[in-house]
From TrEMBL:
Annotated gene: LOC107570237
GO MF annotations in UniProt: metal ion binding; metalloendopeptidase activity
Enzyme active site: 206
Top-level taxon: Eukaryota
Bilayer topology term: Single-pass membrane protein
InterPro entries in the cross-refs: ADAM_Cys-rich, Disintegrin_CS, Disintegrin_dom, Disintegrin_dom_sf, EGF, EGF_extracell, MetalloPept_cat_dom_sf, Peptidase_M12B
Protein name from the UniProt record: ADAM metallopeptidase domain 33
Length: 643
């Protein structure tokens, strides 16, 4: 293991992301104004290094496109066949990718999100999906390929890194709120810089879209000036690269979790596959370790010995929401409340410091009084999307608006784009899966670059105003951005039908109906296909008296519902890194109820999977490496919250 995070002595605001593999290489941030890059000089038998400001880094300025459809990490290493005459060692490529992941990890640590690398796959013979200059077709082809990958390698999110240059200035693209989704959890990134920090900044941006972060609008980024690099979620980036997330991004992330997004992030990962091997001090509790609070200099955990990753005398635990003051919490203590209509609560087991894996209502379960279906733990409706785009008071427009406007097949009304980037007309049956049409009294939709597309139609002798959304770019060649005004995958578009691939398709209820039949009318079905019983009935089948819950939720103890203590890392809209990870907040409801998920984000981690296709390999880790002619590496990421 040769990848580290740290600080510079005597500089309180500093942080460092450094690799000691084959010399020292990495980023040194002294403060908001002084950032340096250190790397070995090529061709030196005795290692000498260059040290310079990041303003001199060769990073291509570019923009991001994202789509509005609705991430503990294991690393998988695929076969790498050296193809470039200047690169003959598999090790160099792996170290290059690991350095990218190390930067992304550092960017996200300020949000208490970790990004360990778990997988690497190399495409040496031919591409496994369409990869060309059209970012839309590349993104959707890659996401389709990822669905096949998921069946052979468990992960939550995948990122493609390619040397192919996209049209215009786009250097990355990812579906908004796609994290954990079977169809949309991933993104594509251009390896546009001669140094890994450039690709890392882009990848952090695209992962941000996956976890609900939109582009920063004017006034969002007060954390850093343009001269200091700005913020990660800026629509266009260059050098110096961004290092911080804006307050708007933090609010977006909070809102995403509050409405039930990112359900897979709350599950504990399998750390056996962590790239680089296990090491005491990396902050991940791996096999053979009782705890891991980081390096001795950074450890603030009173329950763990940082030098050998063992528990202190009399300590039962050191991490996890079911651990308090080094002791395991009582079985039945609620550790994760339900977030929204499609989520289910979980309870401490009394034998583990971690909350049980997060489960939620099985897809296609009814929500919103039958007006919608659950999808990946979220209740998606046209009304919700109108509120997101237009704000308070917005409502879905008349069905005729969807049918008339989306039949045009242009930028203002469509069912997405085809593989060539051309707008597609919506068939009448698919109209409610195209551009979202709303009623709103607002002057314009939310977002700096969003404008309203107002259309008046006549239906049943009455004039009806339809309000759509178009997001434009000030950059040339940005007409190929995925549209944030498209209806989200999983939204109900008819009785027994949901939006998928821009079509209103029949939804399968077989799994749900089979499960419901086993619950004897006293429970609902969770995402594992098991019964979650109502209070008064016992799992697994809700046919005998009991306290409720499921075989997945942990034992229910209703006495504990009057006082819930939640170990937390982040407060709502206050995404700062706390000094004491054992701080608690007490929640005492005035009457017995099932509380919503608390507004705190527990430690998160992102699993990354990498893929490389035929083309130029990455050079050895020395200064000024050559640009790629064509190489593809896929970072497969899975964000996971370790609660």
């Amino acid at each position: 293991h040769c990848f580290y995070h740290g600080r510079v002595r005597g500089h309180a605001e500093s942080w460092v992301a450094l690799s000691t593999c084959l010399g020292m290489r990495g980023l040194i941030v002294l403060n908001s104004n002084d950032t340096y890059y250190l790397e070995p000089i090529r061709g030196q038998e005795v290692l000498h290094h260059t040290f310079y400001r990041t303003e001199d880094l060769p990073i291509k300025t570019g923009t991001c496109g994202h789509s509005h459809q609705t991430g503990h990490i294991s690393l998988f290493s695929g076969h790498l066949k050296p193809l470039h005459q200047r690169v003959s060692q598999k090790l160099h490529f792996r170290l290059w990718i690991m350095e990218i992941a190390n930067y992304v990890d550092k960017f996200y640590r300020d949000l208490n999100i970790r990004v360990p690398l778990i997988g690497l796959e190399v495409w040496t013979e031919h591409d496994q999906c369409i990869i060309n200059e059209e970012p839309n077709s590349t993104l959707w082809s890659f996401l389709q390929w990822r669905q096949k990958l998921k069946s052979r390698k468990k992960h939550d999110n995948a990122q493609l890194l390619t040397g192919v240059i996209f049209k215009g200035t786009t250097i990355g693209m990812a579906p908004l709120e796609g994290m954990c989704s079977h169809e949309n959890s991933g993104g594509i990134n251009v390896d546009h810089s001669e140094l890994p920090i450039g690709a890392a900044a882009t990848m952090a941006h695209e992962i941000g879209h996956n976890i609900g972060m939109s582009h920063d609008h004017e006034g969002c980024c007060v954390e850093a000036t343009a001269e200091q690099g700005g913020c990660v979620m800026a629509a266009a980036t260059g050098h110096p690269f961004p290092k911080v997330f804006s307050r708007c991004s933090k609010k977006d992330l909070d809102n995403y979790f509050q409405k039930g997004g990112g359900m897979c992030l709350f599950n504990m990962p399998n750390m056996k596959d962590l790239v680089g091997g296990k090491r005491c001090g990396n902050g991940f509790v791996e096999e053979g370790e009782e705890c891991d609070c980081g390096e001795p200099e950074e450890c603030t955990n009173d329950c763990c010995h940082p030098s050998n990753c063992t528990l202190k005398v009399d300590a039962q635990c050191a991490h996890g929401v079911c651990c308090e003051d080094c002791k395991l919490k009582q079985a039945g203590t609620m550790c994760r409340g339900a977030a929204g209509a499609c989520d289910l609560p979980e309870y401490c087991t009394g034998g583990s410091p971690y909350c049980p894996s997060n489960v939620y209502l099985l897809d296609r379960s009814s929500c919103q009084h039958g007006r919608a279906y659950c999808y990946n733990g979220m209740c998606l409706t046209h009304e919700q999307q109108c509120l997101q785009l237009w704000g308070y008071g917005a409502q879905p427009a008349h069905d005729a608006c969807f049918q008339d406007v989306n039949a045009a097949g242009n930028a203002f009304g469509n069912c997405g784009k085809d593989s060539n980037g051309n707008y597609m007309k919506c068939e009448k049956s698919d109209a409610k899966c195209g551009k979202i049409q709303c009623h709103s009294a607002a002057k314009k939709p939310k977002g700096t670059n969003a404008v309203s597309i107002d259309t008046t139609i006549r239906t049943d002798g009455i004039e009806v105003k339809c309000r759509g959304t178009y997001v434009y770019s000030t950059q040339d060649g940005q007409g190929d951005l995925p549209d944030p005004g498209l209806v989200m995958t999983g939204t109900k578009c008819g009785e027994g039908k949901v939006c998928k691939d821009r079509q209103c398709q029949n939804a399968s209820f077989t799994e749900l109906q089979t499960c419901i039949a086993r619950c004897h009318g006293h429970g609902v079905c969770n995402s594992n296909g098991n019964c979650h019983c109502k209070r008064g009935w016992a799992p697994p089948f809700c046919e005998k008296p009991g306290l409720g819950g499921s075989v997945d939720s942990g034992p229910v103890q209703y006495d504990s519902e009057f006082t819930f203590s939640f170990q937390y890392f982040l407060k709502r809209n206050q995404f700062s890194s706390p000094k004491n990870e054992n701080s608690v907040i007490n929640y005492s409801p005035s009457c017995r109820s099932t509380p919503l998920r608390p507004s705190f984000i527990f430690r998160t981690q992102i699993k990354i999977f990498l893929i490389k296709s035929d083309g130029s390999e990455r050079p050895p880790l020395t200064a000024t490496p050559p640009k790629l002619s064509r190489s593809i590496k896929v970072l497969k990421t899975s964000l996971k919250l370790s609660t």
